[in-house]
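Schema walk-through. Below, the input block comes first and the output block second. Nothing else is stored per chain. Lengths vary across the set, and this one has 522 residues.
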Amino acid sequence: MQTPPPAGVDTTQDLTTPSVAPTHPSVSVDALCEAASAASGKSISPTLYNVDLAPTKREGRSWTSYSIFTLWANDVHSLGNYAFAIGLFALGLGGWQILLALGIGAALLFGLLTLSGFMGVKTGVPFPVMSRISFGIRGAQIASLLRGAVAVAWFGIQTYLASVVFRVMLVAMFPSLADLDKDSILGLSTLGWAAFLVLWVVQLVIVSFGMEMIRKYEAFAGPVILATMAAMAIWIFVEAGGSIAWSSNNALEGLDMWRTIFAGGALWVSIYGTFVLNFCDFTRSAVSKNAVVRGNFWGIPINMLLFGAIVVVMAGGQFKINGTIIQSPSDIVQTIPNTLFLVLACLALLILTIAVNLMANFVAPVYALTNLFPKRLNFRRAAVVSAVIGLVILPWNLYNNPLVILYFLGGLGALLGPLFGVVMADYWLIRRGKVNVPELYTASPEGAYYYRNGVNPRALIAMVPAAVVALCIAFVPALAAVAPFAWFFAASIAAAVYYFAADRTQQLEDRDGESIAVASTH
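--- output ---
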């Protein structure tokens, strides 16, 4: 006999596909788990399941190909990416060479992100739950916390960088505020604190409304960013007299040129090494696999080539004007002579940076914390905790300390390649896409993903040699020549070791999570 669902839980459902009904905030996690257990026939654990970690229902998913395209329309055009691509110009690559480097990276990313995105569409689960498949129901904490730790630090840093642009805009509008930008309180001026806290609150408010609000914000910001960057490129092109310099004075040739092209393409993939891990956080609400393919196609190879063209025009145009190489579009913004246009450009960069921060650096730690304390934290509460951590670490001091960026964030980032290798090898090569979704939420020792005390030792063993290689490449000067390819070495080694070490005696069952799913707009 099934346990009757608790009061307050709607039991209206399709009799052919029983499911957990939409939940109300007043319904406890224990009550939700009882309803899920009754619907699925599995013992769903409150230490593994809540409304934010549950699979999303297929019906009502709202992330279309346009939603996914706008993710990339925002993230690709981030200030950090512009700084990286303009750096290729400074290293001696010319216009077509920069486009080729970005094109190589884009082609690889299209494949990797599409495979990663398909996992979210099929299972409907976020990354911390997805990683339970390969690491075990408890071992997944390692994977999600590594991803979340990198993200929460960068959330604070990116908010600080956005606040710098905000300060430029405020001083342009109200020159008297410049006096508040001369003191220092814990490393930041009074105006700096005000700008940082305003942006901090804005992001927290957006995230507190959940993934659907993030989708709407990304959809709004995408066209704004594309139009702004295109307008800035056109302005520079006109200022340069209708032509640009196609390379700097130290143009590379021969073997050095080709090595830098392929290194640039590899680093372009490495930049997205974090995102290929938790892309399922977004595609779990995608309407179909086709939506992922279309969104990725227009958002990655097509959009990245447009991004490359804008970079070439900006860098080449500015170099022709005065022989200098800019570091990012913010350098161009500060030279705009018209205050109104300067303010509008700054506002667009703020919209962009918030959009990038939300998708790349805020969602991951929110899900990681929710996964760590599912009975105490929901999406909104975890967002507050993540934001507070991003504030109390005083991220401007981290950003201004190269050793912290290199050894702490660089070291953690080097471990994301091995994580990706294990997760993808397990899902695609060992299981061939077969997942028993309800078993991801059971703490029973007989569960498919319990392994050994909730941890898959084979996954951890596979990570060790890959992590050693990744860290050596990242920090040993003698290996600097292969450093741009560190992510590929680490991911490939982890995938290969796991492929040969994996347990092939498992009984693989493919079962969807509709019986315990919740509405995708939660």
